[in-house]
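Hi there,

I know you've been waiting on this one. I reran it after we fixed the sequence typo, so this is the corrected version. Both the input and the resulting structure follow.
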Amino acid sequence: MDIRIIGVDLAVKAQHTAAIYDPATQKFITKRRRFRSRPQDIDGVLAKAKQGASDDVKIIVILEATNMSWLEVGQYFHRLGAEVYRVNGRHTKAMRQIDTPHAHSDKLDGMALVKLYLVKKDKLVRWTPPGGELLALQRMSRELQRIVKQQTAIQQRLLDLTQWTWGGWRGVAPKAYQEWIMRHAYDPWTATALGAEWVQMRLLDDMPKAQTDWIAPWLQRAEERKRLYVTPETVGFPYITEFIERELDELNHLAKRRKTLTKDHLLPLYRQLYPNDVLTSLYGVGQRSAAIYHGFILSIHRFPNARRFGQWTGMVPRSFQSGTAENKHMRLSKQGPNLIKATLYQNADVARRWDIQLAYVYYTQMVTQGKHHTQAVCAVASHLANRIYALLRDQRPYQLLDLKGEPISADQSRAYIQKYLRVPEKIRKQRKRRQS
């Protein structure tokens, strides 16, 4: 059977460039053929590749993941029977630098993609179109990430603003009442003019079960800030109050949008696609997290083994070995999608409280290895990624096991962790100081 390999350097607005290679002659049929994302253009590339070949010629296409250009071109090649492989741009760059380290062009990138297939065929995974619904699930996950990022940014701005205008809320106003203060009496002059009695009455009208013991120390702090700034105009409290109100309105809008996206769109689509999802059998992994995993993984068969899947998540440490020297405990590669890393971290922090084996990993990292909390949770996240891969590969629910590999109930696991695998508070404080 004849084989033709097509390396496609994709562009966003300009023309794509295809390099066509014949393994039989070990020569390029063409090193640069320009085309656009149009059926007639792609048909022309295929026709050129099939010239002089048998009717059952095998077409292999290697695409670089450039924006979403790879989808429009890749799905058409796939539909016409070609084997399509999608690779990361870093791999293309590395291959090009081996061959032509001092030159860069679309033609050279197309040729590098062909050579990448020739020397790294066993490392590439065949790509198949995921379908519109899975892509929609991924888009919704990304949208959710953007909303959370915006919320975090606003919260951080308000926190920074309060730190220099009020000296921070710590030890003064509980978190449950901070937004209420910002909306009703953020200006220290306004706060003291209203007085403790009015503040307490108005607070209980809005929040009948609210605690009020914080009001006196909060008003004392307001008096301190008045003596510090002398007048409201010193730092522009009138403007700051208006700014905070706009920020809080935007924060509430984002919260509603986040809730609507999750409740009315993301989760219904996820349940439709995965009515009996094995991922939710993992402790720490809820439906929202499972939807994010599926939206980005698309198909677990893209990854030949758990090691490759772990590398994709970015939650595995780098490695270095030379001669007799070997560096261990290196930083995480952090190469995976940011949302996957964040979700794995959050899930791992919950899972370690219920799963004995993960709790043991966390305990060992903190107590024996001298890691701080974040490093220990990242180690747990790496193990959690292995579990996710195994469940999706085998399509079986998760079974809690003890340290000897025997089945155990959730209550037994939790009780054992509480009794034997809790990190002493003294050690936790020591690790915090080291981290800072």
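Quick highlight: The first helix runs from residue 39 to 50.

Best,
R. S.
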